[in-house]
Amino acid sequence: MPSKTKSQSDSPGLIQSIHRAASILELFLENDDVLGISDFSERLNLPKTTVQGIVKTLTALNYLAKDSNSAKYRLGPVLLHLGFKYAKNMDLLTESMVWIERLSFKFNMTVNVCIRVGDKVFVLYCVEPKDRFSTYFSVGASIDIHTTAAGKILYAFLDKKQRDEMLKDYEFVVYSQRSIGNLKDFNEELDRVRKEGISFSFEEGMTPTSSIGGPIFNDKGNLLAAFAVIGNPAEIQKDLDEIIYEVKNTSLMISKRLGYMKGSIIHEQSR
Q: Which of 136, 187, 211, 257 could lock onto 228 through a cystine, CB 3.0 to 4.6 A?
C-alpha cells in the first residue's frame, strides 16, 4: 500500500491531500471495522500529524465517524448515501426492478433488494403490495445478518477468511426460539445456503415474518446483492414450493441479464 500511494501521489496533476484522503478511506476496503490514527499512519507511511489533519476534516464532513468507545474511526453516513446513489444508478436496479416487482405482484408480498456495505446489510430497494402496508424494512435501513434471508445470502458467498473476520465479534441476538444463537450454527447455515443458492428465515427476527432469499451475481460470478420475499408465515408456508421456484428463477433471470452465464452456483430447475 505505501509504495502504491507514493507512486500515485507523484503522478502529474494529482492533488496530494485529496489523494491521501482517498487512500485513508480505501483502507476500509480491507474489511476493518474501525481504524485509528496510528493504523492510518503505519499503513500509508504518513506522519501522524498529517493523518490527523486529514481525518479531522473527513470527520467534520461526515465521511468518517468517530467511535465513542474506542476513539477510532469508521466510515461515515455520507459515504453510505453516496454508495446508495451509486447503486441506484448502476445496472443492478435497472435490470432487476421488473423481476422484483413481478415477484411482489405474484405473491402479493414485500420484496427487498439488499446490499452489503462493510460488515452491514442495508435495504437498497423495496417493493410493497399495493393493498398492504408493512413496516418490515425501509430503504436505507440496516438489517440483521443472522435472522434475515437476505443477510444470510450476502454472507454465505463471502470467502471463508473474510466471513470469519467479519463475524468474529458479531452479536447473535436471539429474538425467538428459531433464531440462530451462535457462530457455529450460523456458519453451518451459511454453508447450506451457499450450496443450495437459496436462504430461509422462518420467524427468526424481531417481527413475526418469514422470508425466502436469493442471490444476484454479475458477469464475473461475483455476488452483487440479495433479494428476499417477505410475508406472513402462514402465507409463506402455504405457497412455499412455488415461492422457492420463483425465487430461484428470479435469481437466475436477473443474474443472466447482468451477464452471469457460468451456471455453477445458480441451478436451473424444472417444475
A: 211
